[in-house]
């Protein structure tokens, strides 16, 4: 770790910023000990001093202060050096010994959902069916929602969240909302609808299951209200979309929520073109506070549908700026571990006939990947089960034969049950695997119940992914709203592999604190080719950083999960401050 005690280095840095010319030896010493990469800027806008600056640079060096000008770090070093760089116009901030880390990046989220707290029933707080009903009923009464209007909810996961470990039926939704159309979202692949919503969508006893989906039915053959995979879209497509300005307002609100967790960058995994346009608009209006990479979600029900979407695309891969940038297309190959729909090589616990569900026609999917690759799009595919990963690897290998995908950063999204041989193959194809340890937090017991202990123990193999693919080949994310956003719970999980009960899953997949922090800082920017622009506190990089409530490197292991952001700075601007 770098220390800053050499007085010659302090004078060298200060002299350089003041316009004086120090000796070559003094300047060399200053650069070596301060971490400064260049001295061309003077009069910083702000300097931070008297802190523990965990730079997460190549050497994982520790500094005391930083200087910021025009939204970028211009110097990193001792408190004395930073003070001497300050001009009368420079704002000097005393950190009071607090720990600072680079801005955190969640590599896989659905951030827009965080902006719907005021416009949806927050069933995520429910622990029983009755509580979920009460929340929906109270939302309708408190907001005075007119009869005949749609009522939607936050995303959640009833099988792991509710005491009853199941989804709600249409009759249970009808009981609290007989006069409204109710659509209850989940963490993905499943939804619930009441009788009025089903009727509005034209779902009757005789409606066939769509390809890749299922309308759940009772013993009499009537729809229960539970919809799976592509069947969700039958109802979802008739819900009136928000106006563009409502979408923008939701986007801005969501970014502020992420800032409170110390998130300064993310990849939003699966957006419609109108949502992408909203991200660009927020950036153009100067209201962005989270740097967003965006996966464009394209329909892939058939090869023709996929190719039609690609040909009509309003955007191009990598289009955008430092605040909003396209980062490829997203496709889906299966479901999830907690949904009993991840497509696996074996079978589910006590269900010998269940291997999960393939969410796409394999031939159509492979042709879609080929087409996207030919048109210059990088491809990211949701694949949770190992059999689904086999499908993805086969398609990517075929695409690579047509046009090399190496250096393009194609990825498997999730890869929760990826096997050792598949990780090795991913490395050979120069692919990424963007995994989320957060699935093994409050959902770990459900994963074990559905998948069995052997698969639960090898879920999200972080140690092996890191050892095989390196920092540039993986990252840390949550899939929020599916999972808890808190990045320090994520780091705690990677370091301990413990769920909230203290149960350890995959002890051999633990990583160090340094590695966990690197996965939340250095790794994610590779998704948007920004690894030299952010992810570390170093001269020339974006001045994105987070002031913490406790010393991440020094607190007892069990307290990592309790750390919170007290201040979040993006581009040198304070976007969240918890201090009174």
What does this structure look like?
With 580 residues, the chain is an alpha/beta fold. Among the domains are: 7-97, Urease, subunit C, domain 1, CATH 2.30.40.10; 116-236, Roll (Diaminopimelate Epimerase, Chain A, domain 1), CATH 3.10.310. Helix content is 32%, strand content 19%. It has 19 helices and 22 strands. A seven-stranded parallel β-sheet has the order 8-14-15-16-17-18-19. It has a six-stranded mixed β-sheet with strand order 3-2-7-20-21-22, with helices on one face. α12 links the parallel β16 (324-332) and β17. The longest helix is centred in the middle third of the chain and has 17 residues, at 244-260. The two termini are 33 Å apart.
Indicate the structural class. alpha/beta
The end-to-end span amounts to 33 Å
Give the second-level CATH assignment, the architecture of the domain at 116-236: Roll
Instruction: Assign the CATH class of the domain at 116-236.
Output: Alpha Beta
Give the oligomer, counting copies of the same chain as homo and different chains as hetero.
single chain
Fraction of residues in helices? 25-40%
Rg (C-alpha, Å): 25 Å
Give the spatial strand order of the biggest sheet. 8-14-15-16-17-18-19
Beta content: 15-25%
What is the number of E strands? 22
Unreliable sequence segments: 1-41
Mean pLDDT: 91
Biggest β-sheet strands, sense, barrel: 7 strands, parallel
- Counting DSSP H or I runs of 4 or more residues, the number of helices is 19
Bulk shape: globular
The CATH topology label of the domain at 116-236 is: Diaminopimelate Epimerase, Chain A, domain 1
């Amino acid at each position: 770790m770098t220390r800053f005690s050499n007085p010659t280095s302090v004078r060298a840095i200060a002299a350089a910023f003041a316009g004086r010319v120090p000796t070559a030896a003094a300047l060399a010493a200053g650069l070596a000990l301060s971490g400064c990469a260049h001295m061309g800027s003077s009069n910083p806008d702000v300097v931070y001093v008297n802190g523990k600056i965990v730079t997460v640079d190549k050497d994982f060096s520790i500094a005391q202060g930083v200087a910021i000008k025009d939204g970028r770090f211009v110097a990193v070093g001792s408190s004395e050096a930073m003070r001497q760089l300050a001009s009368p116009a420079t704002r000097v901030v005393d950190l009071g010994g607090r720990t600072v880390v680079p801005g955190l990046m969640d590599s896989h989220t659905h951030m827009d959902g965080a902006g719907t707290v005021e416009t949806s029933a927050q069933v995520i707080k429910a622990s029983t069916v009755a509580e979920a009903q009460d929340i929906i009923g109270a939302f309708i009464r408190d907001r005075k929602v007119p009869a005949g209007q749609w009522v939607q909810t936050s995303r959640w996961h009833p099988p792991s969240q509710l005491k009853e470990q199941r989804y709600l039926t249409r009759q249970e939704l009808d009981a609290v909302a007989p006069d409204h159309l109710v659509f209850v979202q989940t963490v993905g692949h499943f939804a619930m609808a009441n009788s009025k919503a089903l009727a509005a969508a034209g779902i009757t006893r005789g409606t066939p299951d769509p390809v890749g989906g299922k309308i759940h039915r009772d013993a009499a053959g009537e729809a229960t209200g539970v919809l799976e995979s592509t069947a969700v879209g039958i109802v979802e497509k008739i819900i009136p979309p928000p106006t563009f300005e409502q979408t923008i307002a939701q986007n801005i609100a969501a970014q502020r929520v992420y800032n409170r967790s110390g998130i300064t960058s993310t990849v939003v995994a699966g957006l419609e073109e109108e949502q992408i346009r909203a991200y660009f608009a927020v950036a153009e209006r100067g209201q962005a506070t989270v740097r967003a990479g965006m996966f464009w979600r394209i329909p892939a029900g058939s090869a023709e549908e996929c190719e039609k979407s690609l040909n009509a695309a309003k955007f191009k891969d990598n289009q955008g700026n430092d605040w909003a940038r396209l980062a490829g297309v997203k496709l889906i190959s299966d479901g999830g571990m907690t949904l009993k729909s991840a497509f696996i090589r074996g079978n589910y616990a006590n269900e010998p006939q269940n291997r999960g569900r393939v969410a796409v026609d394999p031939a159509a999917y492979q042709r879609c990947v080929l087409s996207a690759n030919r048109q210059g799009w990088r491809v990211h595919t949701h694949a949770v089960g190992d059999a689904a990963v086999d499908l993805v690897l086969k398609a990517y290998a075929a695409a690579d034969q047509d046009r090399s995908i190496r250096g393009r950063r194609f990825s498997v999204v999730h890869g929760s049950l990826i096997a050792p041989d598949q990780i090795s193959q991913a490395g050979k194809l120069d692919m990424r695997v963007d995994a989320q340890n957060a699935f093994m937090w409050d959902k770990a017991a459900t994963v074990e119940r559905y998948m069995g202990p052997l698969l639960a123990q090898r879920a999200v193999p972080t140690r092996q992914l890191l050892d095989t693919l390196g920092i540039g080949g993986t990252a840390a994310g949550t899939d929020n709203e599916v999972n808890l956003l808190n990045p320090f719970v994520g780091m705690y999980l990677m370091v301990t592999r413990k769920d909230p009960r203290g149960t350890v899953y995959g002890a051999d997949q633990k990583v160090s604190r340094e590695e966990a922090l690197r996965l939340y800082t250095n790794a994610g920017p590779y998704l948007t080719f920004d690894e030299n622009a952010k992810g570390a506190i170093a001269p020339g990089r974006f001045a994105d950083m987070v002031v913490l409530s406790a010393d991440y490197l020094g607190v007892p292991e069990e307290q990592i999960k309790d750390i919170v952001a007290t201040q979040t700075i993006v581009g040198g601007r304070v976007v969240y401050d918890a201090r009174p």
